[in-house]
Amino acid sequence: MKIKVVKRLLEANDRVAEENRRLLKEKGIFTINLMSGPGAGKTSVLVRTIEALKDRVPIGVIEGDITGTDDAARIDALGVPVVQINTEGACHLDAGMVREALDEIPLESISLLFIENVGNLVCPAEFNVGEDVKIMVLSVTEGDDKPLKYPLMFRESDALIINKTDLLPHTDVDMEKIRDNALSLNPGLKIFEVSCRTGSGIPAWTAYLSTL
Ligand code: MG
Ligand code: ZN
């Protein structure tokens, strides 16, 4: 019985996600669902990405957080249109929330949309919101066991950004093990090692974005 209810919920979400996808496609917008656990650096990745691309590509951002507007303020400071969704406790974005946020974004004037999901390694991966691709961020301080402990997000993602590589010398984390574990779940996963703090690896990441 419970299984049926969950399935219906996900099916209803998928229908709205499909509407979002159709609308975004119609407007010629490529959409990225950016996911990670809390504190991995999604917003920092966005700031670096926008700084690198905004002169060439008109970008919009939807910020998902349980509460607050801190991340939206960081994006707003870059002069990019941004809408904050506060989920008021919900630990992921769903397609309906994104549908409402799309009304507040100038869809005619952007061609790339980032949807920063709520920081959570689990259920954001279960809810499509109308994106073209899912991309996740993992910071090296989270440990090399995370792909095997939270496999769904690694399986669902098209690319993995491993952030905070500047901290590697201060940890016992094994970068090869992160890569091997992630690739064992998703052999096609593109992996980028970056430090948003130093900017290292950002050019390779933004070059990949341009190929999407
Ligand atoms: Mg954030
Ligand atoms: Zn959730």
What can be said about this structure in brief?
This protein is α/β, with parallel strands linked by helices and 212 residues long. The chain has a single domain (2-209), classed as Rossmann fold, CATH 3.40.50.300. The chain has helices spanning 2-26, 42-53, 70-76, 95-102, 146-149, 151-156, 175-185, 202-211, and strands at residues 30-36, 59-65, 82-86, 112-116, 133-139, 159-163, 190-193.
Your description of this structure?
With 212 residues, this protein is an alpha/beta fold. It has one domain (2-209): Rossmann fold, CATH 3.40.50.300. Helices cover 39% and strands 19% of the residues. The chain has eight helices and seven strands. It has helices at 2-26, 42-53, 70-76, 95-102, 146-149, 151-156, 175-185, 202-211, and strands spanning 30-36, 59-65, 82-86, 112-116, 133-139, 159-163, 190-193. The protein has a seven-stranded parallel sheet, with helices on both faces. Helix 7 links the parallel strand 6 (159-163) and strand 7. The structure holds magnesium ion (MG) and zinc ion. Zinc ion binds at residues 91-92, 120, 123.
Q: Order of strands across the biggest sheet?
A: 3-2-4-1-5-6-7
| Global Rg | 17 Å
Q: If helices are DSSP runs of H or I spanning 4 or more residues, what is the number of helices? A: 8
Give the second-level CATH assignment, the architecture: 3-Layer(aba) Sandwich
Mean pLDDT: 96
Tally of distinct domains: 1
